[in-house]
Amino acid sequence: MKKRDDLSETIPGGQDRYYVVTKNAVPGVLLKVVEAKQLLDTGKAQTVQEAADQAGISRSSFYKYKDDIFPFRENARGKTITFVLQMQDEPGLLSDVLKIVAQHGANILTIHQSIPIGGIASVTLSVDILSSTGDVAEMIAMIERQKGIANLKILGQE
């Protein structure tokens, strides 16, 4: 098995890359590291040992992964996020999605909408996440909950 440092040799370009994965794909220990970090950030735990104990992980696990995992919103500022929506062909639905983006203070860079087939349109949005943008994860969740949105996938983050 390769060590973490050796993995960069197998990735094209030879450098570390970031991936967006859903919560279901993340091992439990990493989710507990996020929980421990939140306990420290909110003051519910005063020390790393306290936070690790409350989250149910070892202190060494916390230190091993603390710089490698973070909620999506923490790393989104100053970035462009591109996502694709599968949505019903209903008047005003795209407008509702764009309003959600505007309410969170993000800037829409591009919109590409396909011709609806079978009553479903594919829309690709590139959104500039500004320093003043609200919670990006909540923005995406609100879009996903919008009636008429069949699917939302994040294509990339630059």
Secondary-structure blueprint of this entry?
Layout: H1 28-42, H2 48-55, H3 59-65, E1 80-88, H4 93-103, E2 107-113, E3 120-128, H5 136-145, E4 149-157
Antiparallel strand pairs: 1-3, 1-4, 2-3
Describe this structure in words.
This protein has two domains: 4-70, no CATH class; 75-157, ACT domain (Alpha-Beta Plaits), CATH 3.30.70.260. The protein has five helices and four strands, in the order H-H-H-E-H-E-E-H-E. The chain has a four-stranded antiparallel β-sheet, covered by helices on one side. The radius of gyration is 19 Å and the shape is elongated. The chain is an alpha+beta fold. A hairpin with a 6-residue loop joins strand 2 (107-113) and strand 3 (120-128). The two termini are 30 Å apart. Helix 1 crosses helix 2.
